[in-house]
């Protein structure tokens, strides 16, 4: 795995760098590469260094009370350099009631006095890895239909989409048809029998959008990470899905009543 | 003279000194006794001469001052209770000062905001977000006049935590005094003025070491003539300790810095016995109670030897290490913040038993924000309780003679001497700072401490043991967000209202003087200050000549 690069920055005029220096060293001991800016850096200087050094995360430290003004300015400065994807975290003497404000301004997380360096290091590891394996695109949108043959004419003839393939998915007791649209697909789902969950869906709600499917890189890793975060899973382990993929469903409860499928297509990594 | 005669002679000398002292400063009470009616002596010392007593301890007010620098210590007068305060505008801080004086505080201590400490005006872009945050914002004499409004400068002693621009703030203080009709010679107080520890630990430097040392010796020379009662430097271990050093490193690096200042003053032609009595020190009172007491005692012993043996100072006044203490800010926890009151009380007691001359007790909420008025009052009450209720001040150096404390004192002294020798070997403190030696030592110690806390080897109550579901303190001090804008407008107004020609003339003269290392800059800075030149303007003028220091 690629070495995580962290920029530790002291914003403003505050000269207390005991915490910043300890964190820099502790993160190095956790195998990360750490760039420490030194004292009295402006938000612009920090953003510039973050971009130049191509870091994965920026950590800010302030003990002088200037965090409310200066931390958000670092986020803005990164944004103006098209580097909004670099997450910013912070620490120091920061009253708890300032944290919601800072989070609203785009600071990912605030570590207050008393946080351990281990907790910080594992947070950064998670943060950086979730950045790289967050779902990359919508793989398809699943639409429950009573009969594919009856639904196809609208999508095929009126909208002019083309059917890529039709196949049976035994694990779900369904037949599916994929229609390509841009870089994603529509998936028409038809139950094969009364045991299929699609059948139950049609009984309850009638035809309509059934789920969204997100493409991920490492499905098993994602599932265990979500489980750790207390997200309810419908499939504890991946199952075989359509189109030579591994899939797993997340419970709608965590996603504003939207059923979400994660899927990983075999042999297409790096696509 | 045999040991026995020497001991008796010293004892006699001390007793005579006591008689003289109590004429001027009578004892606080007619009778000192315990709750059981047991009389409390001024001092407890060996009944018979011991071999090492005079060499390592001595009587109070006698070389090597291990037991204290005055013959009667707190039996005559308590330490000065001096709470560091300052936030927001000069007007708000003035109100807090007047409140603290009414509450029985006996000296003022000014905290300045970071732009003031680093020589930027409030309307400088570098000051963005920092104005009035960690202390009061001072841009020009105008703010200083407000800060001391209705506070008679001949009656209070004022300590100012100001380093790189110390000469400017001191000149403003002189100017305010003049407006109140107080001659400079009657002003008392202290400026921190210790730039070396800024490079090592605190970070509010402006100029490179060489011109910074010149500014410091200019102050020494000027004050010797004009402000003979003012402490011209407070050589500070406090921030070195806060940055993570050990107790031994704290005093070793501080005393090594002290040596560097004395060297610089001597090199600029000053006489040791003229300036040495105006040197003051500033230490941290940390958690390990007995080690802290021993540290203060060891520091006095080492400094007296440095002044006497190394610099050959003749006057006993030059041998005495006088110090201010502040309890350790970095020992406070954000968790269960009221526990901090207890930590502060123990730390403060160690400073009192260590013989401090003045004391700041931290407020319980300092790991969360600047102290509220209520927290600041509890902190002051803590020292008042130690002074008036505990009896800790009723006899001199109560822990002197304890096998443990004497042994710790010796051991700390001997380890500190090794560091001082090491720094001498590097060419002195200035060179050691430039080589990053002290910085590295401190970082290593800080890291080790952190790892011990995280592994639970070092216990911090509320943090890694006896942890509770968190309850926040209800009220935290908030600095008004509008203050920055108001302060910006105010400094711009000052620039409009002053005599612009006179201001320019003063800055030009200052620039020319700065170019000649043989000229004392203080009179030029005083003129500029009186012409309402701002801190930023004066520092920028000096930046042009001196350049800036860029840290690591």
Could you tell me the mean pLDDT of chain A?
89
Rg value of chain B: 23 Å
The gross shape of chain B turns out to be globular
How is the quaternary structure best described? heterodimer
Number of strands of chain A: 13
CATH architecture of the largest domain in chain A: 3-Layer(aba) Sandwich
Approximate strand percentage of chain B: 5-15%
CATH superfamily of the largest domain in chain A: Cobalamin-binding domain
GO molecular function, one term (chain B): cobalamin binding
Keywords (chain B): Isomerase
Protein name (chain B): Methylmalonyl-CoA mutase, N-terminal domain
InterPro entries (chain B): Cbl-dep_enz_cat (IPR016176), MeMalonylCoA_mutase_a/b_cat (IPR006099), MMCoA_mutase_a_cat (IPR006098)
Which short descriptors sum up this protein?
heterodimer; A: 271 residues; alpha/beta; Rossmann fold; 2,3-Dihydroxybiphenyl 1,2-Dioxygenase, domain 1; 2 domains; five-stranded parallel sheet; B: 552 residues; TIM Barrel; nine-stranded parallel sheet; 22 helices; cobalt (chain A); cobalamin (chain A); VOC_core (chain A)
Describe the structure.
Chain B: Residues 34-548 form the Methylmalonyl-CoA mutase alpha/beta chain catalytic domain. Chain B: One of its GO terms (molecular function) is cobalamin binding. Chain B: Keywords: Isomerase. Chain B: This is Methylmalonyl-CoA mutase, N-terminal domain. The complex is a heterodimer of chains A (271) and B (552). By secondary structure, chain A is an alpha/beta fold. Chain A folds into two domains: 5-133, Rossmann fold, CATH 3.40.50; 137-265, Roll (2,3-Dihydroxybiphenyl 1,2-Dioxygenase, domain 1). Chain A has helices spanning 18-29, 43-52, 67-80, 99-104, 117-133, 148-158, 197-205, 219-228; strands spanning 5-10, 33-36, 57-62, 88-92, 109-112, 137-144, 163-169, 174-181, 184-191, 208-215, 239-241, 245-250, 260-265. In chain A, strands 7-8-9-6-10-13-12-11 form an eight-stranded mixed sheet. In chain A, strands 2-1-3-4-5 form a five-stranded parallel sheet, with helices on both faces. In chain A, helix 1 links the parallel strand 1 (5-10) and strand 2 (33-36). The longest helix of chain A is centred in the middle third of the chain and has 17 residues, at 117-133. The two termini of chain A are 19 Å apart. Chain B has 552 residues and is an alpha/beta fold. Chain B has a domain at 73-399 and 414-422: TIM Barrel, CATH 3.20.20.240. Helix content of chain B is 50%, strand content 7%. Chain B has helices at residues 3-24, 53-57, 90-102, 114-117, 141-147, 166-180, 196-202, 209-226, 238-242, 247-267, 272-275, 289-310, 316-319, 339-353, 373-389, 403-425, 429-434, 437-455, 483-497, 500-514, 522-530, 535-546; strands at 80-85, 107-111, 157-161, 188-191, 230-231, 233-236, 279-285, 323-327, 358-360. In chain B, strands 5-4-3-2-1-9-8-7-6 form a nine-stranded parallel sheet. The longest helix of chain B is centred in the C-terminal third of the chain and has 23 residues, at 403-425. In chain B, 54% of the residues are buried. The mean pLDDT of chain B is 94. Chain A binds chain B through residues 12-18, 21-22, 25-26, 36, 38-40, 42, 64-66, 68-70, 73, 93, 95-97, 112-114, 116-118, and chain B through 114-115, 117-118, 120, 125-130, 133-134, 198, 202-204, 242-244, 330, 333-335, 367-370, 443, 446-447, 450, 454, 463, 472, 476, 479, 481, 550-552.
């Amino acid at each position: 795995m690629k070495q995580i690069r962290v920029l530790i920055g002291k914003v403003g005029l505050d000269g207390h760098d005991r915490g910043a220096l300890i964190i820099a060293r502790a993160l190095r001991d956790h195998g990360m590469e750490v760039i420490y800016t030194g004292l009295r850096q402006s938000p612009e200087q920090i953003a510039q260094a973050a971009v130049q050094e191509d870091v994965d995360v920026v950590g800010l430290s302030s003990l002088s009370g200037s965090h409310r003004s200066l931390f958000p300015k670092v986020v803005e400065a990164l944004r103006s350099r098209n580097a909004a994807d670099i997450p910013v975290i912070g620490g120091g003497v920061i009253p708890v009631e300032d944290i919601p404000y800072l989070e609203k301004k785009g600071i990912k997380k605030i570590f207050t006095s008393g946080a351990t360096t281990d907790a910080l290091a594992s947070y950064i590891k998670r943060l950086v890895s979730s950045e790289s394996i967050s779902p990359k695109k919508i793989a398809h949108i699943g639409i429950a239909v009573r009969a594919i043959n009856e639904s196809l004419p609208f999508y095929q003839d009126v909208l002019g989409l083309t059917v890529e393939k039709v196949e049976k998915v035994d694990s779900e007791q369904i037949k599916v048809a994929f229609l390509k649209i841009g870089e994603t697909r529509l998936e028409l789902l038809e139950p094969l029998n009364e045991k299929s969950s699609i059948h139950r869906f049609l009984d309850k709600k009638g035809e309509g959008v059934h789920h969204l499917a997100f493409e991920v890189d490492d499905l098993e890793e994602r599932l265990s990470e979500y489980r750790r975060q207390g997200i309810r899973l419908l499939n504890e382990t991946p199952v075989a899905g359509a189109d030579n993929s591994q899939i797993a469903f997340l419970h709608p409860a965590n996603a504003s009543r939207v059923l979400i499928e994660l899927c990983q297509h075999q042999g297409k990594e790096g696509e | 003279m045999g040991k026995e005669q020497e001991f008796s002679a010293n004892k006699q000398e001390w007793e005579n000194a006591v008689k003289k002292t109590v004429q001027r400063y009578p004892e606080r009470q007619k009778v000192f006794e315990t709750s059981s009616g047991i009389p409390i002596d001024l001092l407890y010392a060996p009944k018979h001469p011991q071999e090492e007593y005079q060499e390592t301890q001595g009587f109070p007010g006698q070389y090597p001052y291990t037991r204290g620098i005055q013959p009667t210590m707190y039996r005559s007068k308590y330490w000065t209770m001096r709470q560091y305060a300052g936030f927001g505008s000069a007007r708000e801080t003035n109100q807090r000062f007047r409140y603290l004086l009414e509450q029985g505080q006996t000296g003022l201590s000014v905290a300045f905001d970071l732009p003031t400490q680093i020589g930027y005006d409030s309307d400088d872009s570098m000051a963005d977000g920092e104005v009035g945050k960690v202390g009061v914002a001072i841009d020009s004499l105008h703010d200083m006049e407000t800060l001391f409004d209705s506070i008679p400068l001949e009656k209070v002693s004022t300590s100012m935590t100001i380093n790189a621009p110390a000469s400017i703030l001191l000149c403003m203080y002189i100017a305010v005094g003049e407006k109140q009709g107080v001659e400079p010679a009657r002003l008392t107080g202290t400026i921190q003025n210790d730039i070396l520890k800024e490079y090592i630990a605190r970070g509010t430097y402006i100029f490179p070491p060489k011109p910074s040392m010149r500014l410091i010796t200019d102050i020494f020379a000027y004050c010797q003539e004009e402000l003979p009662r003012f402490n011209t430097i407070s050589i500070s271990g406090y921030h070195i300790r806060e940055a993570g050093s050990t107790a031994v490193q704290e005093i070793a690096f501080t005393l090594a810095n002290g040596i560097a200042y004395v060297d610089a003053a001597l090199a600029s032609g000053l006489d040791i016995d003229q300036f040495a009595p105006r040197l003051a020190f500033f230490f941290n009172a940390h958690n390990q109670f007995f080690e802290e007491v021993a540290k203060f005692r060891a520091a006095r012993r080492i400094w007296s030897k440095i002044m006497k043996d190394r610099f050959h100072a003749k006057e006993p006044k030059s041998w005495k290490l006088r110090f201010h203490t502040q309890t350790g800010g970095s020992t406070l926890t954000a968790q269960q913040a009221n526990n901090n009151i207890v930590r502060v009380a123990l730390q403060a007691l160690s400073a009192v038993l260590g013989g401090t001359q003045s004391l700041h007790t931290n407020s319980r909420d300092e790991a969360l924000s600047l102290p509220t008025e209520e927290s600041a009052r509890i902190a002051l009450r803590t020292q008042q309780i130690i002074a008036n209720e505990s009896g800790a001040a009723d006899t001199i150096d109560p822990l002197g003679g304890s096998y443990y404390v004497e042994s710790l004192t010796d051991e700390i002294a001997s380890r500190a001497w090794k560091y001082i020798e090491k720094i001498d070997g590097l060419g002195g403190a200035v060179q050691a700072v430039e080589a990053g030696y002290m910085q590295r030592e401190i970082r290593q110690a800080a890291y080790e401490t952190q790892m011990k806390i995280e592994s639970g080897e070092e216990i911090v109550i509320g943090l890694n043991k006896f942890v509770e579901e968190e309850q926040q303190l209800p009220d935290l001090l908030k600095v008004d967000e509008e203050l920055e804008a108001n302060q910006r407008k105010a400094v711009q107004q000052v620039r409009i209202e002053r005599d612009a020609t006179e201001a320019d003339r003063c800055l030009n003269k200052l620039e020319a003087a700065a170019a000649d290392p043989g000229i004392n800059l203080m009179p030029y800075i005083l003129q500029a200050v009186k012409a309402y030149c701002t801190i930023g303007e004066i520092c920028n003028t000096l930046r042009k000549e001196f350049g800036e220091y860029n840290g690591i």
